[in-house]
Amino acid sequence: MDIKILLVGCGNVGKSFIKLLSNIDSGNTFNIGFVGIVDKKLGSFISSKPISPKEISRFFSNEYTFEEFKPDSGTILRDLTLDSILEEVDFNVMIEATSTNYENGEPSITYVKKAFSRSAHVITANKGPVGFAYNLLKDMARENGVSFRFEATVMSGTPLFSFVRNNLKGIKINRIRGVLNGTSNFIFSKMEDEGLEFENALKLAMEKGYTEKDFNVDIKGIDAKLKTVILANVLMGGWLKISDLPDVDLNGILLEKVKRGLEEGKKYKLISEIRREGDSIVGDLYLELVGSEDPLYSVNLNYNKVVLYTDILGKVSLAGPGSGPDETAYGLFLDLYELIKELGYNK
């Protein structure tokens, strides 16, 4: 069985994903190869035969565009539009790793729809399709008999969705409370532990690749709002929209306030909360000074943590890295691995 991947978006996350795959030995059970890659900076290509991750990963060791890419096998066609690639290339899995559009989720939603119409499975690290159109795309995937996976959209490589899917069967989640934005948490940690001013901590987060391209998405709570919507709709069956959540701006957090909080034994956290109220699912986002008794108090640096309040098990917690290209790429890899198992091609 050939896993023929079309990769849409080949920035830091896409490259990390290819590098991860290049270190995997699939044996003789299945072969993973790329039949196309589309990227604004690198250009695009499609191939008549799947190209191994190792071959592409070696190419990335040099600062080339796909104009210079000459694989050992396959006929390369270049300079095609994504629309034509989606129509012409023979792929069965689309990996979507473009940047999130926090206004409406496009054009990624359209890409996902077109892949489904080609009976291709979709794995995305882009929060747009899940945050703005989850219920629609979930139904469309079911109608076309394909999978729609998005582990990397929340908590990056920390396997929240697969954890709930595989380990909490039959459990009803009544409330979710968590720290979902690794950038804001990293900033607070650096202010608390090293006495950095907000601007310097933000600069350090940018240097480490933790922020979105527009850092305002992080410090104005937009990223956290979209992730809150995703958890509400995916894990609790909600129909939340990003406009249902309040605005939060972290710019007003001065080092003086952070130090005052520490003197009281408390730390600042940007908290997402989702709860059932009758037949409705309600979401919230707020900045809170939490004490050491709070389960979110110990979340440091770019880590995320989610506490699930369930009907049978009570509180169930999951914590792990919440940002970074390697971590996000692992979320894509985990989804691909689970998809391969689901298709019956696991060794």
Key traits:
alpha/beta, 347 residues, Dihydrodipicolinate Reductase, domain 2, five-stranded antiparallel β-sheet, Rossmann fold, globular, 37% helix, seven-stranded mixed β-sheet
SSE topology:
Blueprint lengths: L1 E7 L3 H11 L8 E9 L3 E9 L1 H7 L16 E3 L3 H7 L4 E4 L11 H10 L3 E4 L2 H17 L4 E2 L10 H8 L5 E7 L2 H13 L3 H10 L8 H4 L2 H14 L19 H9 L2 E12 L2 E12 L11 E8 L4 E7 L3 H18 L5
Parallel strand pairs: 1-2, 1-5, 5-6, 6-7
Antiparallel strand pairs: 2-3, 3-4, 8-9, 8-11, 9-10, 11-12
Gyration radius, rounded: 21 Å
Note the gap between the termini: 12 Å
Task: Give the amount of beta strand, in percent.
Answer: 15-25%
| CATH T-level topology of the largest domain | Rossmann fold
User: Which class of secondary structure composition applies to the elements?
Assistant: alpha/beta
General form:
globular
Write the H/E string, N to C: EHEEHEHEHEHEHEHHHHHEEEEH
- Going by CATH, the architecture of the largest domain would be 3-Layer(aba) Sandwich
Percentage of residues in helical conformation = 25-40%
